[in-house]
Amino acid sequence: MRTGSLRRFTWAVLAASAALAATGCSVIGGDSGDKPGPTYNDAMAVIYKDALSSMKTTTGRDELEEYGGSRDACGGPDFLDSKDDSKRRASLYIKYPGDPADKRSSADLVKAMVDQLTKLGWIVERTVPAADGPDPEVKAYMKKPGSGNAGIYSEAAHLPTGETVHDLVIDIGTDCLRNPDWRKP
Questions:
Q1: Is the pLDDT of residue 79 over 70?
Q2: Could you read off the pLDDT of 126-162 as tens digits, one per residue?
Q3: Residue 132: exposed, middle, or buried by beta-carbon count in 10 A (0-12, 13-18, 19+)?
Q4: Pairing of strands 138-144, 164-174
């Protein structure tokens, strides 16, 4: 590229950058600031409540293990192809350890959990049938419209006593929704 062409190109880039800056950068930074609508926190509250109540009804127990949730930015384009924090997704993993007194199979536990969530307005997206074997893992994927999704599975766990139990797990995640704490820079 010749020097004159390079200067024209540089000035064109600078002019375009100045025009974006003058419009408040709404094209570059996902502009969702104070707009009304559900937040990712609202969605997590809904799907978390549904998950807990369904798991407690399915297992008949209150004992659970929760594993760290994540919150990932998924807003509009930000600097260098990343996403800004105007919208977020949140996720959480919840496990109910199996009970030796519960003799249901993994498939029966997942089906009972799916039935409970369906009563609460969840929709089955797909199920993964059990593979052949003595203790196959069964999976179901569900969606709560406007809130989030869940992956549900049950797997066999072997206790030190030699007994086999079936743990029930739900991995929940919100849709990419407004972050109420985000303020446009």
A1: no
A2: 988 766 655 567 899 999 998 999 999 988 888 999 9
A3: exposed
A4: unpaired
| CB neighbour class for 45 (10 Å; exposed up to 12, middle 13-18, buried from 19) | middle
The per-residue pLDDT for 174 is 92
pLDDT tier, 40 (very low <50, low <70, confident <90, very high otherwise): confident
Give φ, ψ of 78 to 5 degrees: -125, -175
